[in-house]
What we know:
Order of helices and strands: HEEEEHEEHHHHHH
Number of strands: 6
Helix content: 40-55%
Shape: elongated
Radius of gyration: 19 Å
Strand content: 15-25%
Structural class: alpha+beta
Number of helices: 8
Amino acid sequence: MTNKELFLTVVERLKAEPFLKGFKFRKRDSSFIKQEGGLRRHIELDHWSKEGVLIIYPIYMVRFDVLLKWFEPYNVKSPQDQQDNPSVGFTGDMLGRQDKFTISEANLVCEYSRLCGTLADCSGIVFQSYTSLRDMFEHEIIPRLEGKRALPDVGADWAFKYLTLTRIESPEDYPSVKELVLAQVHKMAERHELNIMDYFPRLDEIISVMGQTFPTK
């Protein structure tokens, strides 16, 4: 089989796996997706050929639409990229599991079993850990408020997601989170981090609109 045929074989087998019940396969980005209201669970099977064998690199993602929809008028990404933008995303390595799988026709049975088991394990960890905005707040915001995790120092979307999440889920923590986020954003702007610079001139406006969209009680 060619590597393309191998990948299609893997996908067809995965479609029948119980842990993917209710998921739909999207060809354009080789992803299994399950949308329930404003919550999307997403497993992307990034893949490529290397030295004649197939490499599959899964990414496990969760998206809460409410954190991202309001930001679309300001987002410089394409509409498709905006829609695919997750709230959180993990690789196997980030979860302490295998992250890349090398598959050939000769080892298909063995490697498929390993891939399938890891997909079930990792997706279970991520999807069960992020079932609600409260889960995300506890995993992503509280450790940063406590100084146990650093804020990202690249990209930009995270800043607005964290502010929105806190505004919705824990308004009493919003001033502290805003102070932390803005301090990091200004540090990034000082070194001209490209993604932040796309939004920095309109930063006050964007945050004001977010506050009006999600007023505190």
